[in-house]
Amino acid sequence: MPEESGKKSFEEALARLEEIVTRLETGDLTLEESMTLFEEGVGLARLCQEILAAAEGRLEMLTAEGVVPFPATEERGPDRDSSAALA
Q1: Virtual CA dihedral for 52, 11, 38, 34, nearest 10 degrees?
Q2: Which domains are seen in the chain, by residue range?
Q3: Does the reported pTM lie above 0.85?
Q4: pLDDT digits (tens, 9 = 90+) for 25-35
Q5: Share in percent of the chain as helix, strand, coil (round to 5)
Q6: CB atoms < 10 A from the CB of 45, how many?
């Protein structure tokens, strides 16, 4: 899924959120700096949750349509011919 202009990827948002938590845990910030970082962190946490919910919805849609065999069936093993499984 292409990234919208100005929107962070899940990995970018999570990495920034981890940085914020680390800085807040140090306790070396002013109240104003802490509040600013906390607000940014809340926004990033919401963004991560939205991205995860969208991914979960896509997975549910794909598996409900039978596009992805989830979980793998035991019928296909290393000793079975893959063409036989398609028949």
Answers
A1: 170
A2: 10-65 (1.10.287)
A3: no
A4: 998 999 999 99
A5: 65, 0, 35
A6: 15
